């Protein structure tokens, strides 16, 4: 079933993790604009609203004004200069967040043409854990997975064994 529904391993694993912790009767505020994963969630009966592309480093009003019971942030926090403020502004009691992990063999991603599409943070797992703890969240569950490619070379081989993504389910402490 999942192979037909999910175009990427990351989507499949993210969905399975979310489904494990979040009921479809809850409302979700997904940080970031509507995207292919939003469509997957809606197609699977999740009630999801997205932020509209505002710069969350400066404007957290969509988060503060949301009545959603769950906030999700899938590969968003690495783009923010100040995820601390965003985490503090969340009113919901549940959070599911995923980030790319810092890879020792590859520098942080930076698009040369798109000023938004760059990673200011590529976290080590302990850094994200600490950030969540400092902003009042208790980690309930976590998972890591790799992101292998079919390219040749040392780095592509390392991607088969080195976790690239880190996902956390947390609740207000």
Automatic annotation (TrEMBL):
Organism domain of life: Bacteria
InterPro entries named in the record: SAM-dependent_MTases_sf
Protein name: Methyltransferase
């Amino acid at each position: 079933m999942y192979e037909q529904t999910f175009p990427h391993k990351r989507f499949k694993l993210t969905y399975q993790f979310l489904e494990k912790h979040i009921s479809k009767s809850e409302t979700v505020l997904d940080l970031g604009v509507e995207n292919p994963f939003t469509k997957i969630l809606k197609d699977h009966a999740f009630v999801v609203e997205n932020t509209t592309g505002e710069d969350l480093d400066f404007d957290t009003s969509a988060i503060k004004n949301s009545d959603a019971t769950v906030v999700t942030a899938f590969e968003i926090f690495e783009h923010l200069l100040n995820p601390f403020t965003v985490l503090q502004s969340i009113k919901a009691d549940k959070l599911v967040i995923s980030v790319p992990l810092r890879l020792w063999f590859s520098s942080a991603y930076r698009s040369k043409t798109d000023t938004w599409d760059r990673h200011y943070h590529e976290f080590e797992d302990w850094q994200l854990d600490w950030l969540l703890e400092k902003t009042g969240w208790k980690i309930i569950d976590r998972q890591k997975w790799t992101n292998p490619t079919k390219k040749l070379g040392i780095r592509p081989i390392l991607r088969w064994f080195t976790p690239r993504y880190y996902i956390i389910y947390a609740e207000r402490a």
